[in-house]
């Protein structure tokens, strides 16, 4: 059992156990609306999507699953979201690279062990934020559903709670068949969902840093500065791109008034951060808009949060490396701090591994199906980045392709964190260096 002692090996096993338990529960006859057992692949895919807080589905959640089944799904993405937040934050503490959960000096402080006070602080923060934000968003949505849409209170409370927990965990599951398309002009529904998604996509190390140091920007850790600045830039860029490219599209923003266009463009600049709700049909997006979503989904959100993707910090480090090379600078820098060689190697490794997995999965699915390549690529990026958005092809995929998508969701949820941490923990200095020789690059 020695191989289980290290948390980097234990976390994927725990998530796999949650998926298997979820599969068993969803395979019970009581879990379906029809009272018969769901196909094993359907139960497994749904459980994986829920634990991986992705939101891709092969059956309609509110009509196929019973109240019990929907409750199991809600529990699974709550466990998946809470578990990954705490695991990622604690692993970041173990590695000690960029996760400033305590007041530190401006420079990096390397630590070789996890301090009990840090662990307790992370757990308390995760629990408190989870309870407060989910309860507040659920209350707002419940009141809106009951008062404006005349739903019975218990029904409104169920929909409000389901969407609140789903949004907070970036799960993307909806208790409505058309996601939130039916509320595309209602800012009282879309705004709370956006708030919950953006907040948790920042990651708990950033929340802890902001809580300790308030809005004193100069005292924030480099990780927090990069995450907040990068998130803001991506949200604004995504908003402008979607608004411009979809303004006249009759299948998406075209029929809406200018206020609703702005609201939905903002909503869909937030959702590719790995949330998965949609207020307009994603399959109706122009090709150029899908391309913009490829980038937003692949980057994802902040580290040690509920978001997926390669993470904002990873992208920012790579961008800084390219910028330093173009400008002829020796060091890759950001906010008057330089990135160490180990961090640069980790960022490159995570990105290459992610791109390689998506390429292999897309190629394989394209070879066994006749679906459009851009739709398959969108599906694979969405699965790996645990986004949950789809152009509508998920249910049309052959069984082996669904297993590939399930594997992408699992690796995307736990793999990027474990790979990055393994790279950091596995770093060793050799007592010698090889002779240097530089091949031609570019």
Q: How is this structure best described in words?
A:
- By secondary structure, this protein is an all-alpha fold.
- The protein has one domain.
- Helices cover 62% and strands 1% of the residues.
- The protein contains 15 helices and two strands.
- It has helices at 7-26, 40-51, 61-64, 67-95, 116-148, 153-168, 187-202, 204-213, 222-246, 258-270, 287-299, 312-326, 341-368, 373-384, 399-425, and strands at 333-334, 337-338.
- Strands 1-2 form a two-stranded antiparallel ribbon.
- α1 (7-26) packs antiparallel against α15 (399-425), α2 (40-51) packs across α4 (67-95) and α8 (204-213) packs across α9.
- The termini are far apart.
- This is TrkH family potassium uptake protein.
- It is found in: Cell membrane.
- InterPro entries: Cat_transpt (IPR003445).
- Its main location: membrane.
- GO terms for molecular function: monoatomic cation transmembrane transporter activity.
For the biggest β-sheet, the strand order reads 1-2
Q: Which spans have pLDDT < 50 for at least 5 consecutive residues?
A: 1-5, 96-117
* Ends distance: 47 Å
The tally of structural domains comes to 1
Protein name: TrkH family potassium uptake protein
Membrane topology: Multi-pass membrane protein
Keywords: Cell membrane, Ion transport, Membrane, Transmembrane, Transmembrane helix, Transport
Organism: Aurantiacibacter spongiae
How would you sum up this structure in a few lines?
Helix content is 62%, strand content 1%.
């Amino acid at each position: 059992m020695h191989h289980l002692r290290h948390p980097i090996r234990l976390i994927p096993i725990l998530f796999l156990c949650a998926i298997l338990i979820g599969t068993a529960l969803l395979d019970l006859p009581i879990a379906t609306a029809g009272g018969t057992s769901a196909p094993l692949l359907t139960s497994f895919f749904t459980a994986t999507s829920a634990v991986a807080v992705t939101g891709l589905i092969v059956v309609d959640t509110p009509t196929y699953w019973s109240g019990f089944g929907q409750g199991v799904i809600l529990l699974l993405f709550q466990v998946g979201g809470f578990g990954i937040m705490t695991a990622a934050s604690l692993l970041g503490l173990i590695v000690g690279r960029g996760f400033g959960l305590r007041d530190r000096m401006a420079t990096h402080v390397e630590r070789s062990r996890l301090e009990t006070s840090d662990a307790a602080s992370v757990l308390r923060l995760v629990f408190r934020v989870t309870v407060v934000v989910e309860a507040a968003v659920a209350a707002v949505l419940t009141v809106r559903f009951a008062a404006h849409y005349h739903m019975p209170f218990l029904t409104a409370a169920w929909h409000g709670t389901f969407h609140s927990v789903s949004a907070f965990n970036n799960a993307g599951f909806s208790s409505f068949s058309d996601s939130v398309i039916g509320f595309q002009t209602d800012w009282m529904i879309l705004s709370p969902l956006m708030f919950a998604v953006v907040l948790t996509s920042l990651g708990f190390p950033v929340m802890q840093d902001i809580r300790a140091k308030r809005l004193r920007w100069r005292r924030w850790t480099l990780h927090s500065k990069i995450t907040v600045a990068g998130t803001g830039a991506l949200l604004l860029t995504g908003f402008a791109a979607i608004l411009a490219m979809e303004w006249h599209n009759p299948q998406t923003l075209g029929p809406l008034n200018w206020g609703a266009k702005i609201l939905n463009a903002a909503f869909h600049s937030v959702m590719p951060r790995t949330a998965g709700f949609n207020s307009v049909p994603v399959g109706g997006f122009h090709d150029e808009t899908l391309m913009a979503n490829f980038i937003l989904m692949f980057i994802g959100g902040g580290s040690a949060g509920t978001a997926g993707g390669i993470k904002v910090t990873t992208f920012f480090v790579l961008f800084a490396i390219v910028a330093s090379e173009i400008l002829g600078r020796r060091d890759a820098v950001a906010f008057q701090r330089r990135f160490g060689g180990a961090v640069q190697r980790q960022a490159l490794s995570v990105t290459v591994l992610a791109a390689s997995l998506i390429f292999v999965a897309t190629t394989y699915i394209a070879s066994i199906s006749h679906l459009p390549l851009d739709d398959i690529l969108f599906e694979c990026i969405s699965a790996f980045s645990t986004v949950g958005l789809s152009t509508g092809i998920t249910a049309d995929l052959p069984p082996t392709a669904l297993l590939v998508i399930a594997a992408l969701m699992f690796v995307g949820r736990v793999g990027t964190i474990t790979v990055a941490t393994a790279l950091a923990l596995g770093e060793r200095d050799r007592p010698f260096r090889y002779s240097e020789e530089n091949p031609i690059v570019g």
